[in-house]
Amino acid sequence: MKHLGDKDSRLNGIYWIEDAGPCSAVYVLDGGRTLIDAGNMYGLIDEIEDLVSPEKIERVILTHSHFDHVGGLVEIYQIANPDLYVHKLTRGYLDLHRPPFPEFFAALQKEGKLKFLDDGDVIRGEYKLEVLHTPGHTAGDICLYLPDIKTLASGDLVLGADHQYGLVLSKPDEVCGGRMKDRISSLKRLLSLDVRTLLPGHGSPIISNGHDQIKIQLLESFRIQEGKNSEVPWLRMAEVLQEINDLKGALDCCREALKINPDCNDALQIAAEIES
Hints:
- This protein is of the alpha/beta class.
- It folds into two domains: about 1-225, Metallo-beta-lactamase, Chain A (4-Layer Sandwich), CATH 3.60.15.10; about 230-275, no CATH class.
- It has eleven helices and twelve strands.
- It has helices spanning about 45-50, 65-70, 75-80, 90-95, 100-110, 165-170, 180-190, 210-225, 230-245, 245-260, 265-275, and strands at about 1-5, 15, 25-30, 35, 60, 85, 115, 120-125, 130-135, 140-145, 150-155, 195-200.
- The strands form two sheets. Strands 1-2-3-4-5-6-7 form a seven-stranded mixed beta sheet. A five-stranded mixed beta sheet has the order 8-9-10-11-12, with helices on one face.
- A hairpin with an 8-residue loop joins strand 9 (about 130-135) and strand 10.
- The protein starts with a strand and ends with a helix.
């Protein structure tokens, strides 16, 4: 477990348990009382014991329903009895896991330990966590925004720049309601936020330029949707960046579009508007 506050004092009290293989990262806040995601392999409790007695875990917040973010709950609930927070659309997809997980989640719900989140909800602790419903990878994806420190826990919507599987791992899972059009809409929404630090579900945290990684993954989504050799992804990206007043970025995208198609009138028009 690594203390991100050692890299930037703004992040004091936020810990990262690194993802390994088919296992998500886990983020630990509030002195060990709050976990974002649960991974899916044994050893999580040993990591948490370096900070606090695991019995003190009060809440686990799941960014989505996939097993590599959920499986570690088995180990957690052998030691502690936290509340489990999920988006309301995630609930049904949790029952797609093999037994005993459907029974486990049903028991939590019966006991009142399963809490449902919606867009705009706020979870308060040492840091305020704003819940953003960001479908795309699955229907019930959430990101958590910490506005006081300009930090975003992005689940699998935006992965770390160093993750070897990149967009492959975060692609829409249609079985769980994922759709590329929703992914693009969610990434566009994230671009409106002031994100300095990115806490991804896989790959290393990005401490100081997390906003750039959101832009990179939005562009890659456009390229998957429109074609990697087309000027259209660059044009669509230019339009998005122009809307959020990133004029330099928009102009750079226009130039890339014009490299592919020098007669792209839309790119010429956007560039002219920016340069006028």
